[in-house]
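Just wondering, does anyone understand these tokens?
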Amino acid sequence: PDYVPRPPNPFICFRQDWLRRLERGEIAYSGPRDQRTMSFRISHDWREMPEQEKGKFRREALQRKKAHAAKYPGYKFAPRQKE
């Protein structure tokens, strides 16, 4: 492939889970649905989450990183230069 996405970190795993739970109605959120406002709320929830609960997302990120390594052996992050 021409572009290989980076494997997600624990916060990204949490963010994806948070948005899925919001769609299912498991999270009470009545604020604006723009990216900036929601990112602020999600990052706040992450910072307030106990370390023990963050472990779930750290384990998920590690699993996804291993799967990424198996799918893209030899992958090395190399940011693209802006033109």
Notes: Residues 10-70 form one domain. The first helix runs from residue 10 to 23. The mean pLDDT is 93.
